[in-house]
Amino acid sequence: MKYLSTAFAIGCAALLTARPATGQATGMPESYRAVQLNALETQRKMLLSMVDSMPENLYHDKVTPIQRDFSQQVEHAAGAVVFIATKFLGSTPPANIDTTKSYLNSRAGLRGYVNGVYDWAATTLKSQAEANRVKVVDLFGVKVPGWQVWDEINQHTMWTGGQIVANFRKNGMAPPGFGFF
User: Fold this and answer.
1) What's residue 179's pLDDT?
2) Pairwise CA distance, residues 128 & 89, whole Å
3) What is the DSSP letter of 135?
4) Residue 58: exposed, middle, or buried by beta-carbon count in 10 A (0-12, 13-18, 19+)?
5) Residues 6+ apart with CB under 8 A from 171
6) With 60 as the cut, is the pLDDT of residue 16 above it?
7) Would you tell me how many other CB atoms lie within 10 Å of the CB of residue 108?
8) Quick count: other Cβ atoms within 10 Å of Cβ 45?
């Protein structure tokens, strides 16, 4: 609970330090980068727990016909990390992406994909220059400092991960426990 209170306080401070209306932003304390790295690890653990909990024979099962199947939903949650960081922060995407997407067909493959994305993301976040952290970017029409893009990535991953719960419920299974608390 102490971590949650600290993260909330830092998040509030973050919102107060950003000044998108003027097109300028102030930097976050360097210590906030560790909070963001922690968030990436929480995302990784959540997605891996889902990958490990879903039987492989249900990886291509969908809750509704138009929804992504389970493995595609996990891929979307993780893959958006790369998409957002490269598109809005100018990061170089990982070189070892499997364009055949064979990783969607097995636990080992999907685990490898998730771990590859989050290894890349952690390295990218750790090496993000301070100038890029304070630089204001247009994130889907909203002006935010570069450091805040990582917070928005976290929100997207948690939102998308929450949608995966329906895949477990459809099949009469409890989703893996949420490990944050």
Assistant:
1) 64
2) 9
3) S
4) middle
5) 58, 61
6) no
7) 11
8) 16
